[in-house]
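From the pipeline queue, job 12 of 40. The input is one protein chain; the requested action is below.

Action: predict structure.
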Amino acid sequence: MAGLLLFSVVCFVVLWSSVCTGADIVGPEVRLENNELYVTARLALNEKTVQELRNGITKEFIFYIDLFKVWKMWPDEFVLNKTFTKTLKSDPVKTEYVAISRDESTQIRKRFKTLQSMIEWGLTIDNLKLASMRDIEPATYFVRVTVESKIRTLPPVIGYFMIFLPENEFRIKKDSPFFTSGQAR
């Protein structure tokens, strides 16, 4: 009986935390210009997460921008993706705000005067060139933006014993409207 109660509580906590994220993805907006695909999206945080940042808790957000081909009778086909890791740090004593953005090849570190300007820059993907449509066959596509927020890292030993502890604070995704490239089938 105690095992069933513990299992129920763990399931409730995991499901409740995934439902009550309080974060939302604004967009994604897709733009085709000169046969290039550009994506714009932004993560809007809830007040609790903003307050944690204001209090000096470092937050790490991973953005996955994926391109999918739409199939009528089959599951949608993954075509390509780009991944960004955005780390936001604040020091309330010194009133310093630092954001780091990393992808597969580059790392950008910026300092900001205000928390809001750091959040604005750090959680926005603006006019990202995702793909050249010349390299992609004519079809119907959509872009999926997925954002996950990692919980502060726990010692690895705890993760081995507490397999029900979630690794993410939240994981949300949102799809763009369908668009076509060339003469879609």
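Job complete. Strands lie at 24-33, 36-44, 59-69, 77-91, 96-102, 107-112, 124-132, 139-150, 168-175, 179-181.
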